[in-house]
Amino acid sequence: MPRNPADLLTQDLIGSDCDDDTLKGFAASGIPATRERYAFRTDDLIVVWEAMRAGPGIGFVSEHQIRTDPAVIPLLPKLKIPHLPVWLAVHKEVRTRKRIRAVNDYLADALPRAI
Fold this sequence. Notes:
This protein is mainly alpha-helical.
């Protein structure tokens, strides 16, 4: 079981193929990591999540998502990482529809508190 971030490199990791935010996080901690270190790579967050749930390795998702499944065990819960940006996007033509605008406004207000 990993006790610190460097220990993660001794495990099978699930990571992104193109996005390098996790690799930048490792680098900021002084830990050399490359995409080739991942045992499984995908840019689909649903696939990452399902792979984590299936158990072939350790993946990286938000605390909010981890709380949705008691079978997923958080590792290094006290490790502080920088906040990552989240965008709420909607097509500009749809945004002008009253119902869609109401949902968009609700999400814009509720999401920051939920995550």
